[in-house]
Write a structure and sequence with these properties.
The protein is of the alpha/beta class. It has helices at residues 52-60, 87-93, 110-116, 125-138, 140-144, 155-167, 185-202, 213-219, 237-242, 244-249, 261-264, and strands spanning 11-22, 26-37, 41-45, 68-77, 80-81, 95-98, 173-177, 205-210, 222-227, 230-236, 253-254, 257-258.
């Protein structure tokens, strides 16, 4: 189905009918379109292998390192086509990705990891120190662990460090890939609360790729559901959360209450939105 635009006056990101192919033969994304409003939080949802990470890497121009390419469609950031830019140039323009699995520099301290996020900046040490204090204010646990080697910190602390490092680049938009992966539910809530607070305080836009549909739609203003490289459903976050199909296929509940995994796992054969 054709993805509709969130009802806003301006989109900071527009992905327009893109196709992604790996190794010149493997078609991974098929006509994907999505839009992120300026200052919004948008969720990109779907099971493992649906194409969420590939979509983010297409936006951040990281496909080439994996022998992938956008072969159709275009990607606009702040009104300009960016699919041919280098990743570091896109960061300079204000779009940065926090990779799945956190990917901190394990041999560096938390403080040193955060400093690496400012490598593209040219506004001086004082501005960088000010933003470092801002990151520590949002993530007090990082202030406590600032001298610790990142590789010896917890998964939640590493996720906070990865988001903080992205903030140090002064982004207009952050692409956040599976922020809940491998974390305890309490930590997931804490990180998503901070994401929402950052969004409200600083106006940074977020595109969240998540398997945890319930938590993502609790915070997102709009959502897109991917299946096999296609957008199959999209809508306002609260509406998607209450959608009967989404409840049945992704939240494990339907009109008859809680359903077993045996009941839910066969949804692909009877998915109403693809009928």
């Amino acid at each position: 189905m054709q993805a509709s635009r969130p009802e806003v006056s301006e989109n900071i990101l527009s992905v327009n009918n893109i196709e992604v192919i790996y190794d010149h033969v493997i078609l991974v994304l098929k006509g994907v379109s999505l839009h992120v409003p300026k200052g919004g939080i948008v969720a990109l949802l779907g099971a493992n292998g649906a194409g969420k990470t590939t979509t983010l890497k297409a936006i951040s121009n990281l496909l080439q390192a994996e022998r992938g390419a956008v072969t159709k469609g275009n990607i606009e950031f702040r009104g300009e086509e960016v699919q041919d830019l280098s990743p570091n140039e896109l960061v300079r323009r204000g779009c940065i990705q926090v990779m799945e699995g956190r990917h901190c520099f394990g041999h560096l301290s938390i403080h040193e990891n955060l400093l690496t996020g400012a490598f593209t900046r040219k506004d001086g040490a004082a501005a960088i120190r000010k933003d470092m204090e801002m990151v520590y204010d949002y993530f007090p646990r990082l202030r406590e662990r600032r001298s610790s080697q990142a590789g010896y910190t917890s998964g939640g602390e590493q996720q906070m460090c990865a988001i903080g490092r992205a903030l140090m680049s002064r982004p207009a938009m952050i692409l956040l890939d599976e922020p809940s992966m491998g974390l305890a539910p309490q930590l997931v809530e804490e990180i998503f609360d901070i994401v929402r607070q950052l969004n409200q305080d600083t106006g940074v836009s977020f595109l969240l790729a998540e398997q945890n549909t319930n938590i993502a739609l609790k915070y997102a203003t709009y959502g897109y559901i991917l299946e096999s490289g296609r957008v199959v459903l999209d809508g306002d976050g609260p509406a998607l959360r209450e959608n009967a199909d989404v409840k049945e296929f992704y939240l494990g509940t339907g009109g008859e209450g809680r359903r077993s995994f045996r009941d839910v796992k066969h949804y692909k054969r009877r998915k109403r939105w693809l009928a």
